[in-house]
Amino acid sequence: MIKLLKAMGLINMNSKDFKLITGLLILAFIMIILIYIFKDNGAKAANVYYKNQLVLTIDMTLKTTKEYTVSGTNGDVVILYDNGKIKVEEENSPRHLCSKQGWISQSYESIICLPNNIVINITGIYAIDTIVK
Amino acid sequence: MKKLINQNTIYIFISLVILLLVFWLTNNNAKTYETSFSYMDTYINIKIKHSDATVANEALKEAERIYKEYHELTDRYNAYEGINNVYYINNTTQELYMIKLDAHLYDILAYGKSWYYKSNGIKNINLGNVIDVWKKYQLTKTGVPTNEELTKAGSIDIENIVLLEDNYILNNHPNIDLGSIAKGYTTQIVGDYFKSKGITSYIINAGGNVLVGKKSADTSYNIGIQDPDDSSKVFKVIIGNNIAVVTSGGYERYYEYEGVRYSHIINPMTLFPANLYKSVTVICDNSALGDSLSLILFVLPIEEGKVFIKDYPNVEAIWYTNDDQIVKSDGFNKYEQ
Amino acid sequence: MGIKKITELSMLLALSVVLNMVENAVPIFNGLMPGVKLGMANTVILFVIYAYGFKEGIYVSILRVVIVGILFSGLFSPMFLFSISGAIISMMFMFVFKKIAKLSIIGVSIMGSIGHSIGQILMAIVILKTISIIYYLPWLILFAIPTGIVIGTLSKQLLKQFGYIKT
Description:
Chain A has 133 residues and is α+β, with helices and mostly antiparallel strands. Chain A is 29% helix and 36% strand.
């Protein structure tokens, strides 16, 4: 079976394609490595935007588990924070794409919830530098 | 055609290597140095970005020394051998006509006293007697002092602080409490010291007092203001360089009795804790000024507060009211995203 | 354009729209990250490019996005804007890599997929005003390789079937 598939697939690709694929793989891996190297471990906060307006900022350096609720276009959006990671827990949207996006915790990750016009960013490079208490 | 792909991959490699080099070079010039310590009942954290490690580390050490010095000078609960500090001024039984002070203490007393007049009595550094009464009730949480107790607690007359020539103060037994200006004043001294050493990129966080320099040639600091009701949240982010951000609020030090919160900020007019808002935050260019203004604004109604800060250039404020409304001063949005 | 050609292209356009909507209805990979999809409609686009030419490919591609926008996501909605920028960049990439780099259909398919992702990411950065989305790029590139191979293979088979490619 595999041999058959391989035969089909291989006929369609030539050496140029393999070079292309190799080049792309290398490119992608280099990008990933760069991202990991320059990953910001500094003061992090999660910025929650509704229709591009900042509505909530969560201090991500705290060691607790908490729920936050913000209003989205389709109703309430419940955000769960747990010890430095964050995810959308509940929201009203046709296919629940936002809650399926899972946990994020790094400055290069984000949760984009188009149906509710909610974007959650982790500010690493654009971190909150300090908090006045 | 094979060559074409090889060429392309080589170009990609070269550009990535160049990118890496650029990142590495720009990051290596200035490094971040950090220190933290506790003085004045506050956890203080300082971050400096500078290219010279020696200068940076020395500056951090000096910053700690400065905080320690002012902590001891302004301490009203402890005596320190050989230092005529606030405790000494308030409590000495020695029969002296006048007390010689360290120039630094004299200056901060003069500064604090001047604010009484500038604020029509709202900022009073001779409030120790009334503060002591409230402290007793805060400890035991058994109730609230009566008006009689407060008015009979002892003098809060600012004129009891008599500053004489040559850094002397009259031994008049005032009851000085510098809690409302010590942090801001000291923070500004540290900030000025950093600037004098050529350190322009710094964050000094002394709890409710934040003083920042310039983040970089083309970026500004992002300073979050803590949500009074939830210490894990930030309700506003300010963007700016070379600013002091000072918050006064009743949410960190208070006691509750019969469902009412009594903060630690006493209104010298009513002798009771101020509770007009959950918090007030002032942005200006000097941390000592910010300290004074944030206290005054915490005690004044919003409209009067807005008028008050108009006398001071480049001051903006944001109020977080008791019913969770956010009110900003007129020019506040220059600090927003 | 002759009537025969218009009819053929219209049917292909309809097919690409249907494939697009089928994909939207059965989201397989959506848990992973935004913008991840098989891109079945690209089979048709590739077919059109190789069977008719780039001009026709552009027509079908843009019209597909517009029709899906009207029927499904809303004209000028964010989804529409992502799709259209994806389609444009995708076409550009496919043109370059077919005409200039002279890649095989698989290679063109992969680059088309990557172009589509880049277009979507760029538009998302502009609309959502957050640059952090760009960090998904390496993963989308990796994902584009197998899907590109699959779609490209499918297209090639179809082209063979209809006699546009001899082998």
